[in-house]
């Protein structure tokens, strides 16, 4: 069902917990009431309407937005558009669908494309660009992305050298969850290098405990968490250039450097002294649902669990997430040279199917640091952006704040989830099943990667 943002302004006034000062365009001031939604502390900032005046008189225009983000996660998005609507007079109409990916392609092919769609995979963006329906991003959007994002984000929103889609939200996958109180009581330090992390694992194992818990079960998608392990390690052992070559199949899938990376991941995941705390033996990783895999940390039967920032939603109600809470996370350390660890992640991109001025103005708003900060304050835990103009203090969750800081580290290298960039039959097919066999049947790294290489489509 289409949801109209204009009818929800009263929710924003009580939810932001901030005063939004709309300047230019003769906009009225919106006063924030008690904190709700994201629960942000009282703050004050200005949304300057001047950048949208160059698009002309937009009063009464409509922009249709189509996304995979549905109730209840859609409401913070709807609320975050209100300042733009007040500035411009544009009516933003929001529609979320659980069949987004399939239906978007159908709508585009039938000539019924939305004005803007939030696309979660660069591969899908490429498919849509091939239809000729996606229009290049306006210069105002490109200028924002050049200024506020690490350069690889622009590349993921481009096809054949043309920039189409600015990044929107993001998620960081390169985290290790742990119990701060358990670490403090045992006198353990947060490891800053991979070698430190392995040494800590050995120290914990020496006490008779299992340092790691893991699970790659996910119904028909079983195996995907193991792809994140491989990608994170490959970024650290071989570097971003080799990672890009591997993702694009410019080197064989079973290149010796990829074999080395999977073997390095296996030093943890296939080590019976290290796993699977509170859950079983090594093979139990294949049958343990990923959402349950970190829970043994809470009862002390596991010490560390590698999973993305979004795992915060899987902790039981009442679990405090934070540096002094029940659980928190540290960045998965670098391998080799010390420095900022690479960041593996994902996100959405705003693709437009219309060149109308109202659409371009809204694209510009969504690519701005102003929108990122407004969205941070309408959202609760679980949302973050890689926009460097985002103030992490506007994020409610400590893990989201840490993710934002990682994205904004000028020395950190970001790469998009590789399996999401590969052909579907590989990234969401052969790689999942082969890595499941790697765990469940102790299949060798060489055999796993060779079988994926042989499954890569010819064209």
TrEMBL record:
<comment type="similarity">
    <text>Belongs to the bacterial solute-binding protein 1 family.</text>
</comment>
<protein>
    <submittedName>
        <fullName>Carbohydrate ABC transporter substrate-binding protein, CUT1 family</fullName>
    </submittedName>
</protein>
<keyword id="KW-0813">Transport</keyword>
<dbReference type="Pfam" id="PF01547">
    <property type="entry name" value="SBP_bac_1"/>
</dbReference>
<dbReference type="InterPro" id="IPR050490">
    <property type="entry name" value="Bact_solute-bd_prot1"/>
</dbReference>
<dbReference type="InterPro" id="IPR006059">
    <property type="entry name" value="SBP"/>
</dbReference>
């Amino acid at each position: 069902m289409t949801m109209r943002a204009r009818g929800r302004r009263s929710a924003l006034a009580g939810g932001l917990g901030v005063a939004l000062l709309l300047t230019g365009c003769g906009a009225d001031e919106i006063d924030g009431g008690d904190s709700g939604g994201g629960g942000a502390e009282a703050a004050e900032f200005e949304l300057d309407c001047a950048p949208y005046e160059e698009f002309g008189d937009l009063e009464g225009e409509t922009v249709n937005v189509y996304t995979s983000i549905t109730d209840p996660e859609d409401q913070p998005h709807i609320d975050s558009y209100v300042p733009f609507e007040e500035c411009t007079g544009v009516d933003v109409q929001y529609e979320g669908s659980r069949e987004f990916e399939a239906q978007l392609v159908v709508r585009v092919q039938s000539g019924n494309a939305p004005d803007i769609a939030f696309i979660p995979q660069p591969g899908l963006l490429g498919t849509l660009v091939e239809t000729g329906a996606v229009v290049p991003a306006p210069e105002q959007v490109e200028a924002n992305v050049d200024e506020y994002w690490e350069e690889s984000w622009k590349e993921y929103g481009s096809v054949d050298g043309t920039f189409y889609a600015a990044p929107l939200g993001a998620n960081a996958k390169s985290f290790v969850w742990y119990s701060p109180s358990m670490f403090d009581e045992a006198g353990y330090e947060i490891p800053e290098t991979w070698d430190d992390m392995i040494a800590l694992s050995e120290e914990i194992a020496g006490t008779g405990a299992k340092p790691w818990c893991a699970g790659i079960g996910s119904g028909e998608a079983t195996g995907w968490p193991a792809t994140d392990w491989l990608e994170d390690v490959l970024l650290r052992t071989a570097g971003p250039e080799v990672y890009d070559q591997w993702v694009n199949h410019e080197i064989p899938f079973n290149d010796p450097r990829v074999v080395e990376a999977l073997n390095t991941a296996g030093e943890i995941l296939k080590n019976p002294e290290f796993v699977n705390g509170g859950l079983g033996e090594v093979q139990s990783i294949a049958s343990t649902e990923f959402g349950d895999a970190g829970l043994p940390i809470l009862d002390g039967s596991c010490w560390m669990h590698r999973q993305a920032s979004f795992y915060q939603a899987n902790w039981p109600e009442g679990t405090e997430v934070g540096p002094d809470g029940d659980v928190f996370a540290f960045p998965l350390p670098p391998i080799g040279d010390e420095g900022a660890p690479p960041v593996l992640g994902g996100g959405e991109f705003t693709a437009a199917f219309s060149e109308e001025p109202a659409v371009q103005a809204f694209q510009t708003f969504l690519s701005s640091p102003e929108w990122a900060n407004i969205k941070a304050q309408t959202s609760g835990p679980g949302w973050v952006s890689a926009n460097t103009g985002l103030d992490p203090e506007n994020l409610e969750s400590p893990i989201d704040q840490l993710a934002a800081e990682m994205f904004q580290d000028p020395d950190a290298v970001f790469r998009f989830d590789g399996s999401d960039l590969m052909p579907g039959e590989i990234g969401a097919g052969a790689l999942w099943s082969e890595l499941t066999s790697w765990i469940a049947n102790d299949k060798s790294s060489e055999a796993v990667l060779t079988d994926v290489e042989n499954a890569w489509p010819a064209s």
